[in-house]
Design brief:
The structure holds two protein chains of two kinds. Chain A is an all-alpha fold. Chain A has helices at 2-29, 45-54, 61-73, 89-124, 129-143, 146-160, 172-202, 205-212, 217-229, 231-245, 249-254, 260-270, 273-301. Helix content of chain B is 31%, strand content 23%. Chain B has eleven helices and 13 strands. Classes of the chains: A mainly alpha, B alpha/beta. Chain A binds chain B through residues 204-206, 208-217, 224, 227-228, 301-304, 307, and chain B through 54, 56, 80-81, 84-89, 92-93, 95, 97, 100-106, 114-115, 118-119, 150, 152, 163, 166.
Chain lengths: 309, 331
């Protein structure tokens, strides 16, 4: 088990190094930089030079890369090159992350609580009305893009229900609508996944064994089959949690949530190098950690996984 | 006395292209404390017959029977809870493939104590002690460690022992063993069969052994039912079946068993042809297309099961007084 975790950790570290390297060079490969003379026509060239020197942007890219690593290994993500002077990247992340975490966290719990039971229901009522209804909604849920859904929900609350939610605040309705919007797609995915793996699990010999022992139908489904059916859902849990907690650009933009997803897009168009790198590292680490946790969960649920290479 | 009586059992499966008639109106009984063998090739309906008795078939199966009486209880009338109270308590079942018949995500203990908790109302500690005793009974080495292990950590033979322990946990009156040794090595097969026989002797339960291998049951079964094409073609004591078989299919089965004890090098005689298509079973005797003694009547009229001795029945037109006298040719 410890070997298993160490292996996963090592793989995570390697992914992070590759991620940082690739993003760093891709970012610099785009012509210009935050203080390129062509973008800053009102600033005298000498001043631009001095600003660029302050941030080390005048050095060769390779040197900047190693400088970045040096700072990073000391836990320093640098300062934002835009906006108020000298605000550190980590401060900005800690400022914006909580809103995304709140909305995303609720969405994760909501997706699981709705998605899994719907999938189980569809599986045990296979080819009946409940199955068809659930799967029809799930198909819509998987295919509808979040920006369409977000706008529809905004229209519904604002125009039909007459509840203005254009300014985000922490209360029931202001959380409910973005959470619905964020979890619609994962619910659909989880429901479909649970249904198909549940159907597969129910076909297994050990389910017949359980029935032959006199185990009640509820326990056959909820204990013997569901535990097996949930393994693919657990695998999906890592990317899902990472994706939802780190914020969605569309949802945060539409519902004016001051979260990190929305902020990230703004940083990219501003060419704020340190901010971009900081958020990429934050995202990356988050994905790696969430995947590690879901791998560990999987190993706890399925003892066979622990012995795999 | 008969423990289980089945009258006119028909089981069909709805599939895309039609209805598969897996079992076609068979009647038989299982005596108290007897070791009954049901023999037949794949698709003969032997497993489906016993799964129908247990009512453990998937929902696309339709089970019809005039009666399935177990110990005086009409099984066809039982639903839900009443049926589950029989499963594992009165009748239990051992399945063919021990690799897939145990739940991979639960320990041996968790799976073993389940019937004890359900049927005997045992608390966890008591059930664990009993589980340990059961593992000793099925002669598993180091039973304390086995309890904590998962199925994938055990060998096939060991898993089948766990399945057997689970089946005998609540002292059932009847144990159905569905090809319990088919998936195992030959050396393990013998051990498992011996174990089953020993357990049966000690508990006095009836055992129904489903197999395609006459060799497996030759030494242990008191009575044998031979099935073909969803029907019973011959039924009798082990002595009847092995020394005085009346049905050409039984002859064919016996001729296709390898004999190594005699020292003679005889060629195995296979039965030519393939089993009937159960979507459209033949009108006459199901074995007729493969039977070398087939007469005209065989293809149109299904032969009834006729008495041909004390407890010995066979379904073959050759038994009719006017039929040509044919002796079994020993291959």
């Amino acid at each position: 088990m410890i070997r298993y975790i160490l292996k996963r950790l090592l793989a995570g570290v390697i992914s992070m190094v590759v991620l940082i390297t690739v993003v760093f060079f891709m970012m610099h490969a785009i012509p210009g930089d935050p203080f390129a003379p062509s973008d800053q026509k009102n600033v005298p060239p000498e001043i631009l030079e001095r600003i660029r020197a302050t941030y080390g942007l005048d050095k060769p890219v390779l040197e900047q890369y190693f400088d970045y690593w040096k700072a990073l290994l000391q836990g320093n993500l640098g300062v934002s090159v835009r906006g108020t002077e000298g605000v550190s990247v980590s401060d900005k992340i800690t400022h914006h992350f909580p809103s995304s975490l709140l909305v995303g966290g609720i969405a994760v719990v909501f997706s699981l609580l709705v998605g899994i039971p719907l999938g189980v229901l569809a599986a045990i009522r296979r080819k009946k009305a409940a199955d068809f209804t659930t799967m029809a909604i799930a198909s819509v849920g998987i295919s509808i893009p979040s920006f369409v859904l977000a706008l529809l929900l905004l229209l519904l609350t604002g125009e039909v229900l007459k509840i203005p939610i254009s300014v985000f605040q922490v209360d029931f309705i202001h959380l409910l609508i973005p959470v619905l919007c964020l979890s619609f797609n994962p619910i659909a995915y989880i429901a479909r996944q649970t249904r198909s793996s549940m159907l597969e699990a129910l076909e297994n010999d050990y389910v017949r064994t359980a029935r032959a022992k006199g185990v009640s139908e509820l326990m056959v489904v909820a204990k013997h089959a569901l535990k097996n059916a949930l393994t693919p859902v657990i695998t999906y849990l890592g990317p899902l949690v990472a994706g939802l907690l780190t914020g969605s650009f569309v949802v945060e933009k539409v519902f004016s949530i001051d979260g990190i997803g929305r902020y990230f897009v703004q940083m990219v168009s501003d060419r704020d190098y340190n901010m971009i790198m900081g958020i990429v590292i934050f995202y990356g680490a988050f994905v790696v950690i969430c995947n590690l946790i879901s791998d560990i969960l999987l190993a706890i649920v399925d003892p066979r996984v622990r012995y795999e290479k | 006395m008969a423990l289980l009586e089945v009258e006119n059992l028909t089981t069909t499966f709805r599939i895309g292209v039609g209805r598969v008639q897996a079992v076609r109106g068979i009647s038989f009984h299982v005596d108290e404390g007897e070791f009954l063998g049901i023999v037949g090739e794949s698709g003969s309906g032997k497993s489906v017959t016993m799964l129908s008795v247990m009512n453990l078939l998937p929902d696309y199966a339709t089970i019809k029977a005039d009666a399935i009486r177990f110990n005086g209880v009409e099984m066809t009338k039982l639903r839900g809870k009443e049926l589950r109270a029989m499963h594992g308590k009165e009748i239990s079942m051992i399945f063919q493939d021990p690799m897939t018949s145990l739940n991979p995500l639960f320990t041996v203990e968790q799976q073993l104590i389940e019937p004890l908790k359900i049927h005997l109302g045992m608390k966890k500690a008591e059930a664990r002690a009993k589980a340990l005793e059961l593992l000793r009974q099925v002669e598993i080495p180091a039973p304390e460690e086995r309890l904590k292990q998962y199925p994938h950590e055990l060998s096939g033979g060991m898993r089948q022992r766990v399945m057997i322990a689970m089946a005998v946990a609540c002292n059932p009156k009847m144990i159905i063993a569905d090809e319990p040794t088919t998936a195992l090595d030959v050396t393990i097969q013998a051990q498992i069969l011996e174990l089953l026989e020993g357990l049966k002797r000690n508990s006095g339960a009836s055992v129904v052994m489903i197999t395609h291998d006459l060799g497996v049951i030759a030494s242990m079964c008191s009575r044998i039912i031979v099935m073909y094409g969803g029907t019973i073609c011959e039924e009798g004591s082990a002595r009847d079946i092995f020394y005085a078989p009346r049905h050409p299919y039984t002859w064919g089965l016996l001729n296709s068993v390898p004999k190594i004890s005699t020292g003679e090098h005889k060629k195995l005689v296979p039965i030519p042809g393939t089993p009937p298509d159960m979507l459209k079973p033949p009108a006459g005797c199901p074995f007729a297309p493969r039977c070398r003694y087939c007469m005209r009547v065989c293809t149109t009229v299904a032969p009834p099961l006729l008495q041909c001795g004390e407890g010995h029945r066979a379904a073959c037109h050759l038994m009719h007084p006017n039929a040509p006298k044919i002796q079994r040719e020993d291959a």
